[in-house]
Amino acid sequence: MSAKILALDTATENCSVALLVNDKVYVRSEVAPRDHTKKVLPMVDEVLQEAGLTLTDLDALAFGRGPGSFTGVRIGIGIAQGLAFGADLPMIGVSTLAAMAQGAYRIHGAEQVATAIDARMSEVYWARYVRQEDGSWLVRDEECVTPPLLVAQNSEADALSWYRAGTGWQAYSAELEGIAFATQPSEVLFPDAQDIVQLAKFELQKGNTVSVEEASPVYLRDTVAWKKLPGRE
Hints:
This protein is α/β, with parallel strands linked by helices. It has seven helices and ten strands. The chain has helices at residues 36-51, 70-87, 96-108, 148-154, 168-171, 173-176, 193-205; strands spanning 4-9, 14-21, 24-31, 60-64, 91-94, 112-118, 124-131, 137-146, 161-165, 182-184. It has a five-stranded mixed beta sheet with strand order 3-2-1-4-5, sandwiched between helices. The chain has a five-stranded mixed beta sheet with strand order 8-7-6-9-10, sandwiched between helices. β1 (4-9) and β2 form a beta hairpin. It starts with a strand and ends in a 28-residue tail after the last helix.
């Protein structure tokens, strides 16, 4: 199936945009923790110009739906909704954790990936994935937010060797040291739009798109932003 999909992600310190045109991917990516709003739209313009396309030429717009930084996730989905609304495009939300698994496969050929993003507050966003023959990912551990020590305590040994992906492995190396299964390092610290766009292609093939109004983030820690506001629970 041929596809033209634009993907963007600002859920973590990395700001990235990717444009898939059939089998070719145009990519922009930069670690810029406080400059997402300044950088993401110029990146969109650059990949579209490089491919000689406009937004109305596309089949869908994909975005990193989280988990990640509360502000970063909101920035990403807000910009994605604005672009999709203006061009009347369906949207595809992709897990940032699954995107890191795809990144580990792209770089290392990894087929078993344990993902952990530093969620602050002594917690990680955690999930594990196993790659299937068709290129999709089976979820071994459902994505959650949890203390890293509980990840280690609840882990069970298996015969597989898992690639580590995400900032959580470095931030909580001592707590995660006791994990029961074998792990090995990868270069993947953040999700990247070039991996989001590949996962979005699977979803587009299956017809799993939503309207702009239905596009929603996944924070896993929904109540955090309201704790500072009086009267909010």
